[in-house]
Design goal:
The protein has 105 residues and is mainly beta. The chain is built from one helix and six strands, in the order αββββββ.
Length: 105
């Protein structure tokens, strides 16, 4: 029984490993600005078509209704070869994504 369980775990790990171009992806650009005061900003791009930009800032700092407001976007190439882009805001109203491929209410 232990042999079967060990084999199943090894098989699952092997199947979960990145395949094709994702396995060889490298970071081609990365910018990070986070001094820990008032907000942050980062962006990156990888050789397999992933990219992301995000910035966060504190709204109403020091008040009872203080909140972190995050704005950003990310893009990736889907299995169909199409580049998908999602823009978003996350604030006191929750995570609000937008993209051509995301159904609207």
């Amino acid at each position: 029984m232990k042999v079967i369980a060990i084999f199943a775990v090894i098989l699952a790990v092997a199947l979960a490993a990145p395949q094709g171009r994702d396995a060889d992806a490298q970071v081609v650009r990365a910018d990070i600005d986070n001094i820990g005061v008032g907000g942050y900003r980062y962006s990156y791009e990888t050789s397999n078509g992933l990219s992301s930009d995000e910035q966060g800032e504190i709204k109403n700092e020091g008040r009872e209704d203080e909140t972190l407001v995050v704005r950003g976007q990310f893009s990736y190439v889907g299995p169909d070869g199409v580049t998908y882009t999602v823009t978003y805001i996350a604030d006191e109203n929750g995570f609000q994504p937008q993209g051509a491929h995301i159904p609207q209410n």
